[in-house]
Amino acid sequence: MxxxxxxLRDLERRLLVYKFAIEELMTKLRILSxxxxxxxxxxxxxxxxxxxxxxxxxxxxxxxxxxxxxxDAIGEVLDDIAGVRVICPFVSDVYRVSAMLARQHDVExxxxxxxxxxxxxxxxxxxxxxxxxxxxLSDRVxxxxxxxxxxxxxxxxxxTLEHKLFYKYDDSPPADFVDELMSSAMIAAQLDERMExxxxxxxxxxxxQP
Length: 210
Ligand code: 0O2
What we know:
The chain has 210 residues and is an alpha+beta fold. It has one domain: Beta Polymerase, domain 2, CATH 3.30.460. The chain contains seven helices and five strands. It has a five-stranded mixed beta sheet with strand order 1-2-5-4-3. Helix 6 packs antiparallel against helix 7. Bound molecules: ligand 0O2. Ligand 0O2 binds next to helix 6. This is GTP pyrophosphokinase family protein. It comes from Lentzea roselyniae.
């Protein structure tokens, strides 16, 4: 227990650099959002949330996965200590924001998981990027990993409610529950397609206007 307390304290100190990495990424995303809106009269970002994983959550995950309880190595073993979630109006915006981030020289894309192209078996859709960005401290530069989840409003609606509902089940939920979740995910995907098509038509009409 005493060991846990000192581990949690060390973790707390270690997490500061992840807060800085999130702040840097938030600034980058806000700039992209405002600049794109001003040039193209369309903001590809609806809103952004972020979180640094709590020390207790990190400890629990390390234990659950049988990973070493080494505070200095947590950045090597966990990719989601810092998390940023970008909610976009349309699916095309998800890929647009991801491409704009990838073009920045100080943003290194370490891994991409495209759960939009290939949704998870339960229907979960989102684009996940593990990025690494430099954080300039008083005496050194740290290269810090951040998990960026990009999704549409419809994908976020589904994922938020699925998370709430699923939490009640320690094991797998009943089969009819699974089917219902999957079919709601398909409805959300159809909604995304229809809204995307309206968006495309409106922009084509605007481009044709003298
Ligand atoms: P929280 O509370 O959001 O942080 P990992 O388990 O992270 O080591 P994995 O499985 O490769 O590695 O990660 P993946 O698939 O990239 O998913 C990580 C995060 O994506 C999750 O974090 C969720 O935020 C989100 N996610 C993935 N699958 C689902 C899903 O089926 N439903 C919902 N609602 N969200 C999902 P955490 O840590 O699980 O949760």
